[in-house]
Write a structure and sequence with these properties.
By secondary structure, the protein is an alpha+beta fold. The chain contains 9 helices and 19 strands. The structure holds S-adenosylmethionine.
Length: about 400
């Protein structure tokens, strides 16, 4: 390990965080390590941000909110920034485009590609680009990063091509302009939303499609402009002033009015026999639902509702069947340690909804506990036929295929 930078508190925290990012496998190369140790992250967050938040492994720092208080720009969490730079496989001299500016990530990129490389950072919001350009200048990176204001969905880069494009806003689809902007053998790193579940996927071109070579769990502020994709939300009042909200990225029910009053019905449940140990990751179960469970949605419960009082016994993922819905639940495992997955459900057809969810939990357990692979097939490419065990998600400009290798 390198020595503590300067002995000041920020330098100490940065050095400690670098060690943690290496130990947890997010930093894998000496170039990214050196960049992380060199760039003062605290120079790019609002001045009143506590240093322990700035130098926390998985805390982002919001830099701008919209009129409703929703975060629209942030300095992303350190773990996802370094993981995405690793996914981009940059070298000294690489040309890299960052979509979504803030300054800090661009400074890391400038360190990684060195003086012979090129870093362009584009953001749709002039307030963000002004701030990023000013902070980069103040931190000594002004001449090493080109900052542009534009909607990155469009043709804003002319004929310039890049060895890597790193998208730092949550994308529902891949813009054709990004694919055109990639040099031969180039990498596209993008937090892609697949039916509401996000992964930062490192893609490379291979025979007319993009093949994912790595994936990291992480969420981002949403894409704005031409690439914006709005969820559809339905609030289900509980009759006591609270509500449960169902949010659909795709496949929202045709007649949500069928769900009126559903929370007043008696609740049922079904259990899968599938267990998970404490500390064992099951993030890919959500991705499995996103790919294979029609009617899949996310769930949020207002404080004071029955669900809010039972927060430790469920996860915010559900499924709708007509006038009923079910949501992912857990109970202590009967044998051994950990929890068993199941579904609790409301509505006249809650049993069907719960069974549909439980069947997919069991299918994930039988076939899917391996790491999924991702491909993106742009519209117009010679499409492969996908077997039934591949989840296919249709997008505007292509499709995403998610595969689970056999155990
Ligand atoms: C998480 S922030 C970027 C963080 C930054 N990379 C950093 O250094 O930490 C995401 C940014 O994406 C920008 N953005 C959203 N949609 C965009 C679009 N269509 N084109 C360009 N930028 C966009 C937002 O304005 C926001 O500033």
């Amino acid at each position: 390990m390198m020595a503590v930078d300067g002995g000041d508190q920020a330098g100490e925290l940065r050095a400690r965080l670098a060690d943690e990012l290496i130990a947890r496998g997010y930093i894998r190369s000496t170039r990214v390590e050196a960049a992380f140790r060199a760039v003062p992250r605290h120079a790019f967050v609002p001045a009143d941000t506590p240093l322990d938040v700035t130098y926390h492994v998985d805390r982002s720092v919001v830099t701008k909110r919209d009129e409703n208080g929703v975060a629209v720009s942030s300095v992303s969490a350190a773990y996802i920034q370094v993981a995405m730079i690793e996914q981009a496989e940059l070298r000294p001299g690489s040309r890299v485009l960052e979509i979504g500016s803030g300054g800090y990530n661009a400074a890391l990129l400038a360190e990684v590609v060195g003086p012979g490389g090129r870093v362009v950072s584009v953001d749709i919001d002039p307030e963000v680009t002004d701030r990023a350009a000013g902070l980069l200048e103040a931190a000594g990176y002004g001449g090493r990063v080109t900052v542009i204001t534009a909607d990155a969905q469009g043709e804003v880069f002319g004929r310039e091509s890049f060895d890597a494009i790193i998208v730092t806003a949550g994308a529902w689809d891949l813009a054709p302009a990004w694919l055109r902007g990639l040099a031969v053998g180039g990498r596209l790193v993008v937090p892609l939303r697949m039916n509401g579940v996000s992964r930062s996927i490192g893609f490379r071109w291979e025979m007319g499609r993009l093949v994912g070579t790595s994936a990291v769990v992480g969420g981002f502020v949403p894409m704005q402009g031409a690439g914006e994709h709005l969820d559809r939300e339905f609030r289900l009042p509980d009759g006591r002033g609270g509500a449960v909200t169902l949010r659909f990225d795709d496949g929202a029910p045709d007649d949500p009015a069928l769900l009126d009053g559903v929370l007043a019905s008696e609740r049922g449940e079904a259990w899968s026999g599938v267990t998970v140990g404490h500390g064992e990751s099951f993030a890919d179960l959500y991705l499995w639902f996103a790919g294979f469970l029609p009617g899949f949605c996310k769930l949020a419960a207002d404080e004071g509702t029955e669900l809010a009082q039972e927060r430790k016994s469920w996860f915010p993922f559900g499924v709708v069947r007509g006038d009923s819905f079910a949501y992912l639940s857990v109970r202590p495992a009967l044998e051994g340690r950990g929890v068993e997955f199941g579904a609790r459900a409301y509505g006249a057809h809650g049993g069907e909804a719960a069974t549909a969810m439980v069947e997919q939990i069991q299918a994930w357990d039988e076939r899917g506990r391996t790491e999924p692979g991702f491909e993106y097939w742009p519209t117009g490419s010679a499409l492969a036929r996908f077997p039934d065990d591949v989840a296919v998600l249709h997008k505007t400009h292509g499709l995403v295929a998610i595969t689970w290798p056999a155990c």
